[in-house]
Specification:
Shape: globular
Strand content: 5-15%
Pfam family, one: DUF6276
Organism: Haloferax volcanii JCM 10717
Protein name: Small CPxCG-related zinc finger protein
Structural class: alpha+beta
Number of strands: 3
Number of domains: 1
Largest sheet: 3 strands, antiparallel
Order of helices and strands: EEEHHHH
Helix content: 25-40%
Number of helices: 4
InterPro entries: DUF6276 (IPR046243)
Amino acid sequence: MSCPDCDGDLAVFAVPEPLESHAPEAALTVGLCADCLRLHSTEAPPSDGASRPLAGALPDGDAGAAVALLVGMLDSLALNRAGIVDCVEFAERSGTDVHLTLDRLQQAATAPHFDVARRQRQLDAFL
């Protein structure tokens, strides 16, 4: 499946039940674009393993879904604060270092639609 905005490949994740309220369009699966880092609802099956887009940057499973949802909300920190906090806490409880993952995403994405490093600094300020 490809991104409707830039045609990049999507890393597809099943949305964990505790985070369903933060998924776009109440989607049960979401796709994070490997190029622009936009999040989209999708009906595609989850992609796992080393062949998944962003496999070197995002964890598999629920932790990866939490980070994907988090990234999808980073373009509006003020409006999405509660959801961002929920996703960060979920990912950290799953054993994921969110800051390290964001660093890896910044390096992996070819054309992110937002300044990942700047958003990460802003995220640090309110977490």
